[in-house]
């Protein structure tokens, strides 16, 4: 008799399992109870880095960034929205959109500890395809770099670069309570090459952060190039905490280098002096070229004198 029951749960044992499960759900909220109330912002950038906040209940607290997974789904395609640990808790998920999303409307899908939140728990009573749960990626909400100046310079304490285009705000940190166009968003960070680009002078004043007019989204950011990197670089900036995100690059700001690399600006070493200043027409004169920001390796260094290559 006993072995006939193997593999099947006795009714008493089964109901006590169910009981424990329900009690657990009551006190700690199991993923069955996870629910999304709404998402914000409703719009974001084509170049990503829009901070999305998903409010709800029952989100995973085990591993905040792996336990909670967000996907943005359109009719044609879908993208992950990688979850950020800080900003995520039982009642809130924070994720950042990825660059390169196609323009269009997306609805949100959330998995908690591997279990998808069902439609009947998404943005009720209106449902998962209502405004409360939709996100649109569009040009109007995409910061854009339309000019870069200069496009070639050598690094140094005075190397300031100007980026013009759709910047949406002239607010940085707490320099003003609101942008002059009324917006509350701020410039979070500017990147030039591999490092951040410093918006403040050493006396804490801004170099320049200005909208063209109080009703404009267009303007100019100036910042100091940091570090000593030599080579081809791009710039970008992030307008944070709202329906914007990372800037895209207008096509005509992209240049092509001799080695076919695409870039927005180049940094080069500076030459401060050449000695001796004269030598024999037969050649063989040793030249010393002094300067800053040379690469320190021979391999990628060539010296041209009057257009003719010379031996090092
Ligand atoms: C600069 O950005 C363009 C696209 O916007 C990309 O194709 C290119 O590889 C980037 N160049 C560098 C040096 O990162």
Give descriptors for this structure:
312 residues; Immunoglobulin-like; 3 domains; six-stranded mixed beta sheet; five-stranded mixed beta sheet; 2 helices; 26 strands; 7% helix; elongated; binds 2-acetamido-2-deoxy-beta-D-glucopyranose
Briefly summarize what is shown.
7% of the residues lie in helices and 37% in strands.
Task: Kindly describe this structure.
- It holds the Pfam family TIG.
- The protein is mainly beta and 312 residues long.
- 7% of the residues lie in helices and 37% in strands.
- It has helices at 11-28, 64-67, and strands at 35-40, 43-44, 51-57, 68-73, 78-80, 92-96, 104-112, 115-116, 134-137, 144-149, 152-153, 160-166, 186-192, 195-196, 208-211, 218-224, 231-233, 235-240, 248-249, 255-256, 262-263, 265-267, 270-275, 288-292, 303-305, 308-310.
- Strands 2, 4, 5, 7, 8 and 9 form a 6-stranded mixed β-sheet that branches. A 5-stranded mixed β-sheet has the order 15-16-12-10-19, with no helix packed on it.
- A hairpin with a 5-residue loop joins β20 and β21 (262-263).
- The radius of gyration is 28 Å and the shape is elongated.
- The model is unreliable at 1-9 and 27-31 (pLDDT under 50).
- The chain binds 2-acetamido-2-deoxy-beta-D-glucopyranose.
- 2-acetamido-2-deoxy-beta-D-glucopyranose binds at residues 232-234, 249, 254, 261-263.
Shape label: elongated
**Helix and strand run:** HEEEHEEEEEEEEEEEEEEEEEEEEEEE
Under the CATH scheme, which class of the largest domain?
A: Mainly Beta
Distance between the termini: 94 Å
How many domains would you count in the coordinates?
3
The computed structural class is mainly beta
Main β-sheet description: 6 strands, mixed
What ligand species are in this complex? 2-acetamido-2-deoxy-beta-D-glucopyranose
The CATH superfamily of the largest domain turns out to be Immunoglobulins
- From the structure provided, what is the oligomeric state, counting identical versus distinct chains? single chain
The total of beta strands comes to: 26
**Helix count, per DSSP?**
2
The CATH architecture classification of the largest domain is Sandwich
